[in-house]
Amino acid sequence: MKHLPSFLALFCFCLPFALSAQSAAVGEWKTSFPDDKGNMIPVHLSIKADNTYAVDFGADGTVDIKGKYMDVEGHLTIQDTEGSDCSGEGVYQLEVTAGGMKMTRISDECEGRGGPDGVMAFERA
């Protein structure tokens, strides 16, 4: 019991570092994009604190792509691990606000990811 104050002080000191390690991108996101016929396709993106993500095209509850990510100083490096034809890395500048997230391509080994302008914009789901 005599070590409790020391433990609490250590916990309070370390907590901000643990919280800051989580990416601002963690959460549930939604967007939509046009298919080749101009129909809008809803997309749900789930970014988890364990540095993985899941993409659901059509927002039908089926995960179509799984991947892993790393957030270093606002640069999000993503890499699809399942469900994609390309497993190359993409690096995006990350901007997260109260209601949305924007990922702007810096570089990407997967052609077409991020669309023609290299920007993916999401709203909180």
What is the CATH C level class, in words?
Mainly Beta
Query: What do we call the CATH topology?
Result: Lipocalin
Structural Rg:
18 Å
Low-confidence stretches: 3-20
How many structural domains can be distinguished in the coordinates? 1
Q: How many beta-strand runs? A: 8
- The number of distinct helices, counting runs of at least 4 residues, comes to 1
* Derived structural class: mainly beta
- H/E element sequence: HEEEEEEEE
Strand proportion:
over 45%
The name of the CATH architecture is: Beta Barrel
Instruction: Give the helix proportion (percent range).
Output: 10-25%
Described by strand count, sense and barrel closure, the largest sheet is: 8 strands, antiparallel, barrel
How do the strands of the widest beta sheet line up side by side?
A: 1-2-3-4-5-6-7-8
Structural notes for this entry:
It is a single chain. The N terminus is likely disordered. The protein is globular, with a radius of gyration of 18 Å. Helix content is 14%, strand content 49%. Strands 1-2-3-4-5-6-7-8 form an eight-stranded antiparallel beta barrel. Strand 2 and strand 3 form a beta hairpin. By secondary structure, it is mainly β. The protein has one domain: Lipocalin.
Secondary-structure map:
Blueprint: H1 4-20, E1 27-34, E2 40-47, E3 52-57, E4 65-72, E5 75-82, E6 89-96, E7 100-108, E8 119-124
Antiparallel strand pairs: 1-2, 1-8, 2-3, 3-4, 4-5, 5-6, 6-7, 7-8
